[in-house]
Amino acid sequence: MNDFINMFFNIELITKVLPDLVGVGLMNTLILAVSATAIALAFGIVIAMALISRHRWLNWPARIYVDLLRGLPVILTIFLIGQGLPYMGVQPFGPSAYPYGIISLGLIGAAYMAEIFRSGIQSIHHGQLEAARALGMPYTTSMAMIVVPQGIRNVFPALTNQFIGIVKDTSLVYVLGLAVGERELYRIGQDMSQRVGNLSPLVAAGIVYLIITVPLTYYVNWLDNRLRTGRVPVIVEEPATKAIASEGAKA
Predict the structure, then answer these.
(1) Euclidean distance between CA atoms 169 and 99, whole angstroms
(2) DSSP the chain
(3) Taking all residues of the chain, what is their mean pLDDT, rounded to a whole number?
(4) I want to staple 62 with a disulfide (CB 3.0 to 4.6 A). Which of 50, 79, 104, 157 is the partner?
(5) Which of residues 198 and 244 earns the better pLDDT score?
(6) What is the pLDDT of residue 162?
(7) pTM of the entire structure?
(8) C-beta separation of 147 from 119 below 8 A
(9) How far apart are CA 203 and CA 185, in angstroms?
């Protein structure tokens, strides 16, 4: 039992690695996750619109993109994009692997978010679009102003869940060979674990991941329940209404 505690819960090693985990790893993990999510949201909505398009020249490439990036392992896609572009001589960000990690996670996330957006948009009754068109609104305006906002609202919990997945996927960016100041939570924990021959630093990294993901998971559950049940309407009586009601009661 003592060996188990010492291997996984060595307080001295956890305390030693914690400053790097919080000061460097947490910051880089959040930068990777938030930046990749922004890319995924922007590309995801565009791909979703292509998926539901009636034009095959838009629909087919979007479907191929989604199927490929959802079908391949995340670590393989990160390596192919993050190493493939520099090997081809495409180095707009210089030698740093950090931006390529963000791009890789963003493009992968876009494939998943495209399907989320597509399902949300197609869940809106077609009568909404027809009513907007009947009022003289163009198709693009009807989609942008009426259908898409409602679709996004319906799938917001799923989008938050996808963000949680991206946070965890940042642990795979280490395959690109990040610099010391660019290391995320997993890499910092792994480096120290290899140096000391103990897994407690990795357990500490896992605890920090849980601090991020568990509250978000509960938030998703709360939000999903709220969207499904809706708000209880509160009827506020105007003073004139109260006066009329009062006079009627007296009569």
Answers:
(1) 15
(2) -HHHHHHH--HHHHHHHHHHIIIIIHHHHHHHHHHHHHHHHHHHHHHHHHHT-S-HHHHHHHHHHHHHHHHS-HHHHHHHHHHHHHHTT--TTTT-SHHHHHHHHHHHHHHHHHHHHHHHHHTS-HHHHHHHHHTT--HHHHIIIIIHHHHHHHTHHHHHHHHHHHHHHGGGGGGG---GGG--HHHHHHHHHHHHT-SHHHHHHHHHHHHHHHHHHHHHHHHHHHHHH-PPP-PPPPHHHHHHHHHHHH-
(3) 84
(4) 50
(5) 198
(6) 93
(7) 0.83
(8) no
(9) 11
Name residue 191's amino acid: D
66 Cβ contact list (under 8 Å, min separation 6): 47, 51, 111, 114, 115
Place of tokens 């609104």: 137
Which token pair is 184? 């995320």
pLDDT value at position 236? 42
| Two structure tokens written together for 102 | 């963000």
pLDDT tens digits for range 95-122: 788 899 999 999 999 999 999 999 888 8
> Which structural domains are found in the chain, ordered by start?
2-250 (1.10.3720.10)
Residues 153 and 124: beta-carbon distance below 8 Å: no
pLDDT in tens, 52-96: 888 888 899 999 999 999 999 999 999 998 888 878 877 777 778
Sign of the torsion formed by the C-alpha atoms of 71, 76, 78 and 79: negative
